Amino acid sequence: MQVFNLINEISFNANFLEANVLNIALLLSGLIYILRQFLGSMLNIRQEKVLFAIRESEERLEQANIRLKESEKQLEQTKIVINQIIQEAELTAKKVRESILQQGQIDIQRLTAAGKATIASADYQVKQQIQQQIITLAMQQVRIKLIDQMSADIQEQIINYNITQLGDKI
């Protein structure tokens, strides 16, 4: 009640040029009281928006960190798979190399055996031809000697001998 009495005693001067400091203070305190709620609610709304944006940013950061961790895990798994593929490729290359070497050795052995067989066959054919030529030459020499040494008496004895042999068989 004393406050009301004090306000009644102080009169409000509407002329701003003649106003005293007390009128200005009253005007300012009224403005502050009225604008405080308005400005406070505006600041609260702005604060809520900023806090919401911060929370959203923190959530996005959290999701980005989760995605980053997942990507790092996938990268590690990919590295493991790549290393396995490299090891398998090296093992396969080693097996293929060994297989080629084994096949090469088998081919060399086969070609060596075939070469030896060819040489043996050629050697046999040459020996056969030489024997045939020796026999032919020997027969020709025997024939020449027989022609030179054979007389009519010897031819008759050979014919009679062959006839006797045929007669014994019959």
From TrEMBL:
Pfam families: ATP-synt_B (PF00430). Residues 54-88 form a coiled coil. The keyword Lipid biosynthesis does not apply. It is a single-pass membrane protein. GO terms for molecular function: proton transmembrane transporter activity. The chain crosses the membrane at residues 20-39. One of its GO terms (cellular component) is proton-transporting ATP synthase complex. One of its GO terms (biological process) is proton motive force-driven ATP synthesis. Keywords: ATP synthesis, CF(0), Coiled coil, Hydrogen ion transport, Ion transport, Membrane, Plastid, Transmembrane, Transmembrane helix, Transport. InterPro entries: ATP_synth_b/b'su_bac/chlpt (IPR002146). The keyword Transmembrane applies. Its main location: membrane. It is found in: Membrane. Belongs to the ATPase B chain family. HAMAP family: ATP_synth_b_bprime. F(1)F(0) ATP synthase produces ATP from ADP in the presence of a proton or sodium gradient. F-type ATPases consist of two structural domains, F(1) containing the extramembraneous catalytic core and F(0) containing the membrane proton channel, linked together by a central stalk and a peripheral stalk. During catalysis, ATP synthesis in the catalytic domain of F(1) is coupled via a rotary mechanism of the central stalk subunits to proton translocation. This is ATP synthase CF0 subunit I.
